[in-house]
Amino acid sequence: MTSSAKRKEDSHLANGGVKQSTWSKALSSSAVWEEKDEFLDVVYWLRQIIAVILGVIWGIAPLKGFLGIAIFCIINAGVLYVYFSSFQQIDEEEYGGTWELTKEGFMTSFALFLVVWIIFYTALHFD
């Protein structure tokens, strides 16, 4: 069996429907997540997207210091909490509790945020 035929076969469910992609499930409310790692990957990459967007905004608006870091942490944690508790309505205990989901991928997104923030701030506000 060729790899493309295998992929087509894998994408069909037992009831004849087509398997939903990870990102289409991520953007639809109250999606069903068969695999735990799939949802955790969505949380991780959503954090990275938030980090880049906020890093660019913080760099363009000459935001500095602890205030910028604190606001990033609040927005990052808040958006993800609303996403998994209200939008996706998942059972947090199935993933190790609210704290586990809240800290999933946080440090890498924080590092990415700092890099983007520093690059944009330096490029736009220093001679």
TrEMBL record:
Any one GO CC term of the record: endoplasmic reticulum membrane
Keywords: Endoplasmic reticulum, Membrane, Transmembrane, Transmembrane helix
Keyword S-adenosyl-L-methionine found: no
Major localization class: endoplasmic reticulum
Alphabetical list of Pfam families matching this protein: EMC6 (PF07019)
Subcellular location, record wording: Endoplasmic reticulum membrane
Membrane topology qualifier: Multi-pass membrane protein
Superkingdom classification of source: Eukaryota
Annotated TM spans: 42-60, 66-84, 105-124
InterPro entries for this protein: EMC6-like, RCAF1
GO biological process, one term: mitochondrial respirasome assembly
Endoplasmic reticulum is among the record's keywords: yes
Family according to the record: Belongs to the EMC6 family.
Stated name of the protein: RAB5 interacting factor
Species this chain originates from: Mugilogobius chulae
